[in-house]
Design goal:
single chain, 233 residues, mainly beta, Porin, 8-stranded antiparallel barrel, two-stranded antiparallel sheet, 8% helix
């Protein structure tokens, strides 16, 4: 089954209110640590613990009202997948794997379901749009790190009909999620949130088309790309 790639994060976050005499409303800085996981062609179900990566994020919010605010964030995270951990025999036989560092800038609106001036425990939701960059890598049989975009494992550099063009590694996405925040004081809060990202590219893992270009790559002399398009080892 062919799947569009996405990634999600689970974060433990802290909020610190920063008052400014030049602002009529409150600005809050925030930061968090958590884990991230990817869903796509190399992981088609709940990720195993070995396929979870660390995530760090930070940013600021600006109150537009009692319960709604603008949120600007920066996230640095990892994503990875490995056919060898799949329950499907055909994917284990394909034996592809990848890792990628991802940075993301997000612009979102955040809405408190409960009024934080009344309740200490405040559930909230958020959503918007973001810009992210990825660059999938793997290791060849000799242990050398390979940047998969640059070799075209699906025939991107064959310049022949029927094969895709090289994909862009900087793309837009749609981030959204929900969380719960505990207001310790007016100036400090802690919380937990779940983030999900919908992507407009299927190449986060360097895998998109269901067919393999191995024979065409061999015929064109692109042997490294051929060896990493269907590893089978």
């Amino acid at each position: 089954m062919h799947l569009k790639a996405s990634y999600r994060t689970f974060l433990l976050i802290t909020f610190l209110a920063l008052s400014s005499p030049s602002l009529a409303q409150r600005v809050r800085a925030f930061g968090g640590l958590g884990v991230s996981a990817y869903l796509g062609d190399l992981i088609q179900g709940p990720p195993a613990l070995k396929q979870v990566s660390p995530d760090v994020m930070g940013g600021a919010t600006y109150d537009l009202g009692e319960k709604i605010r603008y949120r600007l964030g920066l996230s640095l995270l990892g994503v990875k997948g490995n056919d060898a951990l799949s329950p499907r025999a055909d994917l284990r036989a394909r034996n592809l794997n990848f890792k990628s560092f991802v940075w993301e800038i997000s612009n979102m609106m955040e809405y408190d379901i409960l009024d934080r001036n009344v309740y200490n425990i405040v559930p909230y939701v958020f959503g918007g749009f973001g810009l992210f960059h990825f660059n999938p890598t793997t290791y060849d049989r000799n242990g050398n790190k390979v940047y998969l975009h640059d070799i075209g494992t699906e025939g991107q550099y064959l310049n022949q009909p029927g094969y895709p063009k090289p994909y862009h590694r900087t793309q837009l996405n749609i981030p959204f999620g929900a969380g719960v925040r505990y207001e310790v004081t007016d100036a400090f809060a802690v919380g937990f949130e779940f983030n999900y990202r919908i992507l407009f590219t299927d190449y986060l893992d360097d895998v998109s088309t269901p067919k393999y270009a191995t024979n065409a790559l061999i015929a064109a002399g692109q042997l490294e790309a051929a060896s990493l398009s269907f590893r089978g080892d």
